[in-house]
Structures are given as structure tokens and as C-alpha cells.
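**Entry details**
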Amino acid sequence: MKYIGVFCSASAEIDPAYYEATRKLGEWMGKEKKTLVYGGADLGLMECIAESVKTNGGRVVGVVPAILEENGRVSSFPDEIVSTQNLSDRKDYIIRESEIMVALPGGVGTLDEIFHVMAASTIGYHAKKVVLYNVNGFYNGILAFLDKLDEEHFTRKPLSNYYYVANTYGELLDLLK
């Protein structure tokens, strides 16, 4: 896989362990000459992944909604900036251009992106999956909730058909190779 979409936090006030996991993924992506397709902001884990990919020889595509451009929050690391009208357009572009998506720890925007990937796959818009990188058990609560949806028959197929879980860096790399 050459094109990897990444969803992640824009917060700077998070545990340093999440930055370390992000930096390590970006370093691998850069050294393996992968292309990062991500949200394009100069904030939090988004800036961390872009810098790490870029400084290690990878290519960076920032997909930036107009409001971030208007507010001057665009990263200087992307090789290419794709401007979008809004967050929905940004998600659609990242999904279309990526072979797989990785969800690093993140907030409500990251959750929206995860569920957008899964929902579109469930009805046949694509057959791509999102990898939940479960750093320090970050996604355990969401995974339990997804299991509950399956158990209570709110799904036609097991939701695990639409995502992978990587609990370790090694598991993540295995899924991306």
C-alpha cells in the first residue's frame, strides 16, 4: 500500500505517548516512501504525522477545508494541498485517494471519520477498511460499543468486517504491509 489516509487528533494537550506512536508511524511511512493523505492542519497529531513522514522521505498530501485555510491553520509540511469546501468533502477525498485509513487517537472529528469510512463500506461505496490504532487501549470503549451493536443485531454483518484493530506497533505495520 502506497497511499495511507490518517485520521487523528488536532489537540496539543494529549498524552506524549500518542505523539510518540504517531512519530514512529510517520517515520516508517517516510522511510518506506509512503504517501500520507491527511487533514492538513498544523495542529496536534496532524502536524506530528506530517512532519515525521516528510522528514523521513515520504510524500504528504494535506486535505484542507476552507475554514482551516481562512484561520491560517494549514501545515507547511504537505507537498500538495487539496482545498475542500468542508469536512465532508475532506473525508470523501481522503477515503477516495487512500488504499487504507489509520485512525490514531483523536476526538469527535476522528470518530466521525472512522464511522464515515465504515458506514460507506457497509452500503457498498467502497471496500476499504480503517485501522484503529489502539495505543494504550484508546479505542477499547468504542470497540466494546461496536461489539454491542453486533450482539443486539443493529448490524446486518459483523462490524469487524469494516475495520482492523492494531494494539501494537508491530500489528499496525503488519496490516499496512
In short: Helices lie at 16-31, 44-55, 66-70, 87-97, 108-122, 140-151, 169-176. The chain is about 45% helix and 20% strand. The beta strands are 3-7, 35-38, 59-65, 80-84, 100-103, 130-133, 163-166. The radius of gyration is 15 Å.
